[in-house]
Write a structure and sequence with these properties.
single chain, alpha+beta, Beta Polymerase, domain 2, Hydrophobic Seed Protein, Hypothetical protein af1432, 52% helix, globular, binds adenosine-5'-triphosphate, binds magnesium ion
C-alpha cells in the first residue's frame, strides 16, 4: 500500500534516516490515510534518541519541552510536527500515565505500546506500511481492538476506554467483542482520570458522525462520570409526541444536532431533568413541566464538575433553558424571543429544536419542522437590517437622553428599557426620530 506523505514530513524522515536512524510517520495519520481520510496532523517516530534528533535537525525551529517523554517538536511552514523516540511505557500505578518511559530502538516495541491496532501503524517510503498487529485488517473490517490484552491496556490507562469510544463514534467502527467487554468491565477506572481529559474525550465522542450506536451501547460508561444519565435510560415518556425512552430520544437528538461542542452538549443535556419533572395527567399522559429550566441548572452543575469552560457552559445552558419554547408564530413573538435569547443564539436554538423534533414521533415531524421554519423566516425578516432587539441596536442611546437633560442613570435605564419594549412589541419603530419623540413624551409625563 502506498501512502502519500506530505513533503515536510518526508523531509524530516529523510533527514533522520540520512543520519543512520529509522523514522516513520505513525499513528492516527496513517490510520486516516489508509481510510482515505485527510489526516489533521502528522506524527513521526524514530529510533534516534531525543538528543540525536535534535542534533540531526540542527536545532532550528525546535520546541524542546516534551523532551523528557522523548518528543521533539519542529515547526515547518507554521505546521508543528512531533518527533517521538521509540519507547515503551514503564509501570502504570495510577491508571493514567506511566511512572517512566524507556526509550527503545525497535519500531515493533513502540507500536506494541500504542492503544488500538488501527493506531499501531507506521509508514515510510522505504519500508512501506508497517503493520504488526493487524491494524489494516481491522480498518477494513471497521473494528477498534486493543493492541494486546484489553483489560491490561485499560488498567494501564483508563482514558483509553473513552478513546476507543471516540474513534468508534467518529469512524463508524464497532468495538471488537473482547475490547468491548473490557470497556464495560473497567469503566470505573475513569474515576482516576482528570475531569479535563474526560470532557475532552466526551466532546469528541458526542461530536462523532456515528455517535448514536455508541451512546446507546455504552451509557454505563458515561454514567461513571455523569451518573445523572442513569435515570434517563429506559424511562418511558407515555406521551404522543414520543416513541422512545428519554435516553434513546436524547441520543437521537445528539446525532441530529449540528457538529460542535456547544450544540452537541446542549443536545446531550437538554432533557437531563425530565426524570425528576415527570408527572401524569388524568388521561395517563406523561408531562415534564419545568424540565428546561431545571435541566439548565442541572447541566451547569455537571459541566462545572467536568471543568467545561464558562463560555461554553453559558451557551449550552441558555439553549437548554429555551429548547422547549413554542411561541405562536408572529413577528412580535419572534422579536420577544430574540430579545430573550440573543440574536446570535437564535439559529442554534432553532437547530436544537429541529434535532429535538427529529428524535420524537416521526408522524408529527413535518409539522414541527414547518413550524421551526416559519420562526426562522420571521427571524430573517426582523433582523435583516441588523437589528437585534437589544439596547445596542436601539437607535437611541443614553447620550441622547443626557442631551435632553436626564442625568439620573436609573431613569435613563428605565426610559431606554421602555423604548426597547415598545420596539419589541411593535408599538414603536426602531427609528431615531420616533424614539426621540417618544422619549420626550416620556420625560414630559414624568415632570
Ligand atoms: P486523532 O486523529 O484524534 O489525533 P490519533 O490517533 O492521532 O487521533 P493522538 O491522541 O493524536 O491520536 O495520538 C497519536 C498516537 O499516539 C495514536 O494514534 C496512538 O498510536 C498513540 N496514543 C495516543 N494516546 C495513547 C494512549 N492513551 N495509549 C496508547 N497509545 C496512545
Ligand atoms: Mg493525532
Amino acid at each position: 500500500m502506498k501512502i502519500k506523505i506530505p513533503e515536510n514530513v518526508n523531509r524530516i524522515i529523510e533527514k533522520i534516516q540520512s543520519a543512520g536512524f529509522e523514522a516513520y510517520a505513525v499513528g492516527g495519520c496513517i490510520r486516516d490515510s489508509v481510510m482515505g481520510l485527510v489526516p489533521h496532523d502528522w506524527d513521526i517516530c524514530t529510533s534516534a534518541m531525543p538528543e540525536e534528533t535534535l542534533a540531526v535537525l540542527n536545532k532550528t525551529n525546535i520546541i524542546t519541552n516534551g523532551l523528557k517523554h522523548g518528543t521533539v517538536t519542529v515547526k515547518f511552514d507554521d505546521e508543528l510536527y512531533e518527533i517521538t523516540t521509540f519507547r515503551i511505557d514503564g509501570v502504570y500505578n495510577d491508571n493514567r500515565r506511566p511512572e517512566s518511559v524507556t526509550f527503545v530502538r525497535s519500531l515493533r516495541e513502540d507500536l506494541a505500546r500504542r492503544d488500538f491496532t488501527v493506531n499501531a501503524l507506521a509508514y515510510n517510503n522505504d519500508k512501506g506500511l508497517c503493520d504488526f498487529f493487524g491494524g489494516v485488517e481491522d480498518i477494513e473490517n471497521h473494528i477498534i481492538r486493543c493492541v494486546g490484552e484489553p483489560d491490561k491496556r485499560f488498567r494501564e490507562d483508563g482514558l483509553r476506554i473513552l478513546r476507543a469510544l471516540r474513534f468508534a463514534a467518529r469512524l463508524g467502527f464497532s468495538v471488537e467483542k473482547e475490547t468491548a467487554a473490557a470497556i464495560h468491565r473497567n469503566a470505573e477506572l475513569l474515576r482516576n482520570i482528570s475531569a479535563e481529559r474526560i470532557s475532552n474525550e466526551l466532546v469528541g465522542i458526542i461530536d462523532g458522525e456515528y455517535v448514536e450506536k455508541i451512546l446507546l451501547e455504552y451509557a454505563d460508561v458515561l454514567c461513571v462520570f455523569i451518573p445523572e444519565i442513569r435515570k434517563m435510560t429506559g424511562f418511558e415518556q407515555h406521551n404522543p409526541h414520543h416513541i422512545y425512552d428519554i435516553w434513546t430520544h436524547t441520543v437521537k437528538v445528539v446525532s441530529h444536532s449540528p457538529h460542535g461542542k456547544i450544540s452537541r452538549l446542549a443536545a446531550l443535556f437538554h432533557d437531563i431533568s425530565k426524570p425528576e419533572c415527570y408527572s401524569t395527567d388524568e388521561k395517563g399522559i406523561g408531562h415534564f413541566h419545568g424540565h428546561p429550566e431545571r435541566g439548565a441548572e442541572k447541566a451547569r452543575n455537571i459541566m462545572k464538575r467536568l471543568k467545561i469552560d464558562n463560555k461554553t457552559m453559558d451557551k449550552v445552558c441558555l439553549l437548554i433553558k429555551f429548547h422547549d419554547v413554542r411561541p405562536e408564530v408572529n413577528p412580535r413573538n419572534v422579536r420577544r424571543l430574540i430579545s430573550r435569547v440573543g440574536a446570535e443564539n437564535f439559529n442554534s436554538l432553532m437547530q436544537l429544536k429541529a434535532a429535538d423534533a427529529m428524535g420524537q414521533n416521526p408522524d408529527l415531524l413535518n409539522e414541527k419542522l414547518d413550524y421551526i421554519e416559519r420562526l426562522e423566516k420571521i427571524f430573517e425578516e426582523q433582523t435583516a437590517d441588523g437589528q437585534q432587539f437589544n439596547l445596542k441596536t436601539l437607535r437611541i442611546n443614553g447620550r441622547d437622553l443626557i442631551d435632553m437633560g436626564i442625568t439620573d442613570g436609573k431613569t435613563i435605564g428605565r426610559i431606554l428599557g421602555y423604548l426597547l419594549d415598545g420596539v419589541i412589541n411593535g408599538d414603536l419603530k426602531n427609528e431615531h426620530h420616533e424614539l426621540m419623540n417618544s422619549a420626550k413624551k416620556c420625560i414630559d409625563k414624568q415632570k
